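Subject: for your reference before the review

Hello V.,

The reviewers asked for a structural picture of the protein, and I figured it would be easier to keep everything in one thread rather than splitting it across files. Below is the amino acid sequence we used in the manuscript, unchanged from the supplementary table.
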Amino acid sequence: WEPRYPTQLLSSAADLATFFVLMCVERRHRGNVDSAFSRPGVLTALYFQLHFAARFGLEFMRDERPLLWAPLSWAHGAAAVGFLAAGAAMAWVLRGPAVAARPGHLGERR
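And here is what came back from the structure prediction:
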């Protein structure tokens, strides 16, 4: 008999934690034009990185998973590829020129 984990609830908790992290980052850098997090697309890439990191960790707790290599499943591979793709997207966004702040950008009041 092996213990079972409520992975759906853990996934929901991870999504809630991701939401709070993104809200804290957005509020901390709101209106700061010099911040890297004020660029369009950075918070989206950060969301995907956090999501895929949580997904990678949660896959260890799932029961029925076809193994790919050692303890890693195909879902681990997909999460790792998604994490790397989100990291590449963030690097690409950060490499570009900064966008000037405009009214309504990042929650500023008009």
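For the response letter, the relevant points are probably these. The mean pLDDT is 80. The radius of gyration is 17 Å.

Happy to draft the paragraph if you're swamped.

O.
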